[in-house]
Known about the structure:
By secondary structure, the protein is of the alpha/beta class.
Amino acid sequence: METNYYYEQQLSEAAQALKNGQLIAFPTETVYGLGANALLPEAVAQVFSVKDRPQDNPLIVHVSSFEQVKSYVDNFHPLTEKIVKNFWPGPLTLIFKIKKGGLPAIVTGGLSTAAFRMPDNKKTLQVIKLAKVPIVGPSANTSGKPSPTTAEHVYHDLQGKITGIIDDGATRIGVESTVIDLSDPMSEPMILRPGAVTKEQLEAAIGGKVTIDQHLIQSSETPKSPGMKYRHYSPDTTVMMVYEEDWQEAIKWAKDNQLRVGVIAGPKIAESVRFDVAAVYMYFDDSVKAATQGLFAGLRSLDEKMLGLDLIFVEVFSEEGLGNAYMNRLRKSAGQKYFEK
Ligand code: TXA
Ligand code: MG
């Protein structure tokens, strides 16, 4: 199969192909998604097989309006309206209890709940509208690899396996949406996956408390969000996190051990070490926002075989606000490994 790029003028063609059961990757503000018609079980099955994704890991259903969600859910959490008004379209996925038989079991992994999101991307919203069906969309990467933040990343992983890619340049946020559980109308909303919408922003919007799934803090507990248990965001090259005060030591240790090292960091760190390492991927600036936007692209670029790196060192940020989302992804890429003196 040849994988085509779809441009602005071909969005209705892309929508038609999706509706008919073909797989098309689409841009969002977070990462690129691998789209298929959520109402066609055979098309959804294809999504699992081309990504090599475990079948018990349910998918997010992408919609172009909140109205569309009402076809599948009748018992909403009382805070739903406030949350949707404040954050949709945007990087926030909502879990609701669904009507029986409303969505194919393959979409939900057989659960009685489903995840919904209205992405903030004009082209994608238009395609969902034109297709007139909800679109499932896991990140458009091979399972286990860093999520794609450009159309080229998608092409790299899925060329020849999907019908097309809607190209809209690099994604603005760079990590996947925040996932919150609203499936029990009697419970406080619970964050199952940190993303660009933070706990603080959610609490300010609803004027109440939001909890965080304990396993995000204590890694031993069983996650509520099935996807969180799998190996994730892992390049083939070993990744290590480096605290700000440890960089000189880390570079010296790598040199003493004759290791070929790559560095992913903001300009402040990147410029101070760049003559001592084999490769550098520099974030746009020293903010956590720039780091979050660039993390997956950096991991993919330094994982290129031809660089022949033994090790990738990555800058650490403090775990507050957006730093929670950045560190959640980075810890997984690094398999929790820090450089230790
Ligand atoms: O930003 C994003 O969310 C991207 C873009 C493409 O929209 N999509 C994405 O999808 O990250 P995916 O499939 O890679 O992650 C979906 C996450 C997984 O951790 C999955 O386990 C969880 O959502 N999830 C889906 N349905 C669920 C449910 N009913 N209950 C709990 N967690 C659920
Ligand atoms: Mg994913």
